[in-house]
Design a protein that fits this description.
- The chain is of the alpha/beta class and 191 residues long.
- The protein has a single domain, classed as Spore Coat Polysaccharide Biosynthesis Protein SpsA, Chain A (Alpha-Beta Complex).
- Helices cover 30% and strands 22% of the residues.
- It contains 7 helices and 10 strands.
- The strands form 2 sheets. Strands 1, 4, 5, 6, 7, 8, 9 and 10 form an 8-stranded mixed beta sheet that branches. The protein has a two-stranded antiparallel sheet with strand order 2-3.
- Helix 2 runs antiparallel to helix 4.
- The radius of gyration is 15 Å and the shape is globular.
- The termini are far apart.
Length: 191
């Protein structure tokens, strides 16, 4: 296997407050939601780690790390992910995007170049939880966490960020479908 020098990281540490249950471990069409994300990552990365505060994620066979800095949302999860990763470059995905494809992940990685962050944008929407982050972000993200500046858009503004414009096609849009609520989930059963 060729070394890709990139770690795949799945953020599964959210409270799932809108869903009412842990999204990543829900069954969607006979498969756990996180398995869709794992399957899309595998061809593109050397290794996978999961950032979660729920020990059930250890059942998936990958290293699981809880947040180094508690209650800081996705920025805290990304900071932990970068600390724990064995590679400089990392593709970070949230656990609730089961329709992400290996093809799109490969495109984001291939266009990440020499930026600290490469974030896809489609139809005016920025996708910071489906983006490439490098370890170069660590000092700035640590500083932001210490100051309780937790918005990802604020964090990306503090590092060199490439905005990767994607076509606003249905195929691209489907990759980013988030299952945040029971209504979102029920809409996609059987797809």
């Amino acid at each position: 296997m060729n070394k890709k020098n990139i770690t795949g990281i799945i953020l599964a540490g959210g409270n799932s407050s809108r869903m009412g249950t842990d999204k990543g471990v829900m069954d969607l069409n006979g498969k756990k939601i996180i398995h869709y994300v794992i399957d899309a990552l595998k061809p593109n990365v050397d290794d996978i780690i999961i950032i979660a505060n729920n020990s059930n994620y250890k059942d998936f066979g990958y290293p699981v790390f809880s947040d180094e800095v508690k209650d800081c949302g996705p920025l805290g999860g990304i900071y932990t992910a970068l600390l724990k990763s064995s590679n400089h470059k990392n593709i970070i995905l949230s656990c609730d995007i089961p329709f992400i494809t290996s093809k799109l992940i490969a495109q984001i990685i291939s266009e990440s170049a020499e930026y600290d962050v490469t974030v896809p944008i489609h139809d005016g929407k920025t996708e910071p939880l489906c983006a490439v982050y490098t370890k170069t972000c660590l000092p700035k993200f640590k500083e932001l966490l210490e100051r309780k500046v937790l918005k990802l858009t604020d964090a990306m503004a503090q590092v060199s960020t490439k905005q990767l414009q994607l076509s606003a096609t249905t195929e691209i849009e489907d990759n980013f479908i988030n299952l945040n609520t029971k209504e979102d989930f029920n809409k996609h059963i059987g797809k």
